[in-house]
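Researcher: Let's do a round of design. I'm pasting the structure tokens now; please hold your answer until I've finished.
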């Protein structure tokens, strides 16, 4: 079982130890270092030595990548002095909100498919309403469309 880390802990790990802790290949940590996301200390022989603060940076990078951020966006996230930090982070929040709205629409569509008795789901009028905007070449209307989907079209056929 992995021990719990606390910020400021000065324990030092090699690149291999830290990579193994997070299930990463060592080249990933080296790449992140080259991108300016990590800057581990070096020992007398020049080997990388990572501490708990580095581990929290790695965890932040991993969580941010899972949320769809690019390495450049993550670099800005981790750089409190970046001049365009707020602009980039606000754009990422807007993207997350758009993606969350799309996921909500997909969940509603999937629920309809689960409850629908139509043999060919794509022939079901209620199901078709979930993708009509795409057929019409219009972007989804986010929360407005999600609410419309919730309020109707969930009747099993």
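Researcher: That's everything. Go ahead.
Model: Designed sequence:
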């Amino acid at each position: 079982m992995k021990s719990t880390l606390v910020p400021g802990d000065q324990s030092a790990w090699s690149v291999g130890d830290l990579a193994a802790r997070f299930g990463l290949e060592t080249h990933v940590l080296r790449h992140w270092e080259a991108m300016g996301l990590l800057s581990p200390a070096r020992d007398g022989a020049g080997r990388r030595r990572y501490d708990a603060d580095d581990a929290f940076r790695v965890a932040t990078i991993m969580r941010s990548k899972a949320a769809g951020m690019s390495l450049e966006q993550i670099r800005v996230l981790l750089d409190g002095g970046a001049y365009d930090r707020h602009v980039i982070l606000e754009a990422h929040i807007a993207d997350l909100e758009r993606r969350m709205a799309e996921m909500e629409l997909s969940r509603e569509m999937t629920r309809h498919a689960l409850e629908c008795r139509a043999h060919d789901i794509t022939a079901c009028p209620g199901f078709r309403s979930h993708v009509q905007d795409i057929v019409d070449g219009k972007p989804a209307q986010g929360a407005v469309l999600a609410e419309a989907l919730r309020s109707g079209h969930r009747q099993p056929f």
